[in-house]
Each structure stands twice: as structure tokens, then as C-alpha cells.
Amino acid sequence: MPLTDFHTTERVAERALSVVIPVYNEEQGLVALFERLYPALDALGVDYEIIFINDGSRDRSAAVLAEQFERRPDVTRVILFNGNFGQHRAILAGFEHCRGERIVTLDADLQNPPEDIHLLLEAMDKGHDCVGSIRRNRQDSAWRRWASRAMNRLRHRLTGIEMTDHGSMLRAYSRNVIQLINQCNEMNTFIPALALQFARNPAEVVTSHEERHAGVSKYSFYSLVRLNFDLVTGFSLVPLQAFSMLGIVVSLMSGLLFVILAGRRLIFGPEEGGVFTLFALLFLLMGLALFGIGLLGEYIGRIYQEVRARPRYVITAVLERERR
């Protein structure tokens, strides 16, 4: 289906603001989140809703969310997945169910203070349709800060996407951007980058960053690597093109080496030296070939996931007050 402008196809939003929050094993911190989130949104003086997506939590997160729905059914909605599908798919489910004119995404771990939501909305008041956040004084480990900076630089060179802090999920989007995202059917995507492709006037604001209130990060080193693979392979063909160029260069150098060795044999006759150098060169070429096969496999794997056309997520239930 072609991407179309929201204003020509979609109904008028029923709320001024929707806050989408994915939840995975956050039982210990949810009460603290409620105590800060609802007052912060009440202070805005706008008609809002909060959509929690329970992404297959193994603890009591689903029960805690259900209890909160009973307390504030007027502004609370809960989507329950039947398994763990990942943070970005959970957010996509929230996008498909939200009713707000403006949509804010927020993590449940309280590292991004909900009190800073107003900063994003103030930027939207100035005409921006996609507002990201830049975490001030990040409270993550040193290796994660270093890896994030390195990936930011690499991502910009490979994709051309201008994003200062791609790891922060505190972001705000207009209804038009969300509608365009909802028309995309990728199994794996990186929502902030996808939104920037559709935004007409994006911006970034500086926000606070706190230590996790409870629990541990759900992103392991492997998960972070996978997320960055999704970001790069989902928005750029540069890795494939660069490896093709590398293959051409290596082929030319290998041909030149063959000519040199053949010439030496004709001039000096058989030589015993240089065997280990040739082995080292052989292992280098084998390593490059294996890396190239793995890179190609990443793209083929994405194609394989898309052509199967399986659901991105499965919803068990939605807790919400019936609309009148």
C-alpha cells in the first residue's frame, strides 16, 4: 500500500496526547512510574491517554498494569501480548491503537523522567512534527556510552540519518508521522530512524537522564548488536556496496600478487621463503569472505522474515474503557 498523507485518510484524533510505554519485566518499578507519570501528565492540562504494552513479561507486570487500569480506566489502556516480541514491535502496537494527536514514547524504567515530556510538547508547539531527546549526563555504564557514541558516528556515515542520541526512547511524534509508520509492514525496524524519514520538520531537545529505579537493563550486549544491525541493514545498502568495492580491491591486489610471484619464479626459480606470508594472506582473504557471507546473510535473513508475512505480534487482550 502506498504511503499517503494522514490528513487525507484518517479520522480526527480523539485525544490531545497519547503516551506509549512498552513494559517487559518491570514489576519492581511500575508503581514508582505511576506515581510520577500521572501527576506529570495531569499537570499538562490536556486530554491524554497512556497505553501500556506488556511484552510477554514473566513477572507480575501484567497484573500490576491491570490493577492500575482499574484505578484510572479513564486514561489508561493496557495491551497484553502472548509472548515477548521486542520493544519496537510493542511500540508499533501502541501506535496502531493510540488515539492522540501527538504521541510520546517512553521507557518504563524511569531513566527518562516523565516530567520532561512537556519539553517535547513545547518543541512541537513551535511546528516540529518529530522531536527526539538528547540525554544529559547519561547514567549508563562507560562501555555503553562509548559504544553508543561509536554507533552514532557509524550510523550517520552509513545511513545519513541525523540523530544525536539514537538510544533514547523519549520521543514525540505527530499523528501524521505515526500514520505513515503504521502503513509500513517491516518485521524489524528502528522506529526513530523510520520516523525521521517521514518527518517534515524534526528537532531535538536536551532532557535529563536518571539511573534505573529498579531492575536491570533488558538489553544485553548481543541485543544491542542485533538492534544496530537492524538499524544499519534496515536503512542502508552501503555495507553491501562497500563490501563489493572491497572485493574488487582485494581481487586486483590478489591478481597483482600472482603476477609478482609468477615473475619471481621465472627470474629466480623456485623459492622456499614466504610460505607463512602466503598463509597469513590466505587467512585474511578467508576472513573477509566469511564476513561478506555473514553480511549478505543479514540482508537475506531480513528478506526471509518479510516474505513469510507472519504477524509482528499477537495480542491476548486489550484492557480499555469502551468508547461512547
UniProtKB/TrEMBL annotation:
EC number(s) per entry: 2.4.-.-
Keywords: Cell membrane, Glycosyltransferase, Lipopolysaccharide biosynthesis, Membrane, Transferase, Transmembrane, Transmembrane helix
Pfam family, one: Glycos_transf_2
Transmembrane segments: 242-263, 275-296
GO molecular function: glycosyltransferase activity
Location of the Glycosyltransferase 2-like domain: 18-178
SUPFAM superfamilies with a match to the protein in the record: Nucleotide-diphospho-sugar transferases
Superkingdom of this protein's organism: Bacteria
Name this protein carries in UniProt: Glycosyltransferase
Protein species of origin: Variovorax humicola
Biological classification of the source: Bacteria, Pseudomonadati, Pseudomonadota, Betaproteobacteria, Burkholderiales
